[in-house]
Amino acid sequence: MEIDMTEQATLERSRAKKQLSHEEIEKTLQTLAEGFRKWPPAPLLHWPNEVGLDYETVTFPSEDGVVLEGWFIPKEGSDKIIVANHPRWFNRSGFPSHLEPWKSIGADTGNDFEINFIPDYKILHDAGYNVLAYDLRNFGHSSDANGHLFTVGRYESRDVIGSINYVRTRPDTSRMTIGLFSRCVGGNSTMYAMTRRPEVFEGVRCMVAPQPLSSGVALERALERKGIPSSYMKELNEKVRLQTSFDLEQFSPVPWAENVRIPTFLYQVRDDLYTRPSDVQAMFDNIPIAEKKLYWIEGTSARWDGYAYFQRQPQQILEWFDLYMNQ
Fold this sequence. Notes:
The chain is of the alpha/beta class. The longest helix is centred in the first third of the chain and has 13 residues. The protein contains 12 helices and 10 strands. The strands form 2 sheets. An 8-stranded mixed β-sheet has the order 1-2-6-3-7-8-9-10, sandwiched between helices. It has a two-stranded antiparallel ribbon with strand order 4-5.
């Protein structure tokens, strides 16, 4: 397998570390597995009124009845709406990774700067879209569910379906054209929702999905960074199964992508230390329609730069929404 220069440097740093004892490896594996149930909940530090946006705090049920919380940001005169969710650890506001304890989550990979999603909503609003931004279950102000279990899109897919149902049943949005801005695990969740309930997405015009990710690949990269041989992946998989009831293969959106039937734009930091380019490429290749696009963000290995890309360089994403939301 070809290894790029950034990945090679990571491997060399890992080899240079003190060799871990068996007890240290076992503790690390257990901590990684328990991360599917335990993480520091992130506060909402930013709100739409900071950039002059009117908004309504809303609650609505997920497909299975879990209470979700979000913001509805109206755009007067518009009949189009973008439904936005968020990455793992984050919420609709963003992620305070410039502060502890959240800084420690990504600091070793250069992801120790704050992500504020409010500018994203301002850009979408100014481009002519209503926005529904919501917290997935177990994140932000939405309710806990499933024993506070993170399933990388499986149970969270119920929240995607709930958000679309909410738009379609709310009187002032029921006739609006819908587009999706499904970030990271939000993208995973949307693809799995499309796998389970394809009829829900009839009439949804398009999706932008930054940085969807397979947990197995992410954990392989985590072991590399910590200097733990890949031979421990089998044991780690078993520990994850004991925490979640699922194997890591069941957390991959690669096969779910085969059920994407709406125009979809993926983008990804190519040298992201959390994943490999082949993972997102496989998802893209599995999308079985011609109306798809994959864009690689170059010049950084920080995954968070992918989450900030839209507010830094919004043009091609806005062009994608404009192309399909106005048909």
